[in-house]
Design brief:
The chain has five helices and no strands. The chain is mostly helical and 135 residues long. The longest helix has 32 residues.
Amino acid sequence: MIFLKTLMTGLLAALVAWGVNYVLLGLRLNNRAVLTFLGPLGEETLKTGLCLLTGASLAGVHAVFGCAEAAWELAGVSQAKRQGKLKPALAAVAGHSFFGLLVSLAFARFGRADVALAAGFLAHLAWNRLILALH
């Protein structure tokens, strides 16, 4: 049962995050600020918050979220363009899984949701800043 709960929670978090990010980017705000600060804050809050509300696996939900983001990267692109999207898709799985591991470790160590959320957010923020700096 925990697998199904984790799967559904991760997919719900991904769906809501996609909608929120779509709206934020559509508001014509500073896209760099959205991508580096607001996106990670919203995504980590959704993933961690929904986990704590549902009792799903913290690391599992983050990994499912990463898989959903990878699927989004690969969806709707031609076979010729898929090769160029493979690295970002794999980075999504690895990155969100890593954030989930950090959140899980922080929550296990400190027993506080705010510390766990901060750990995930800061790692996600640093990752997005690095990726944007490289591109």
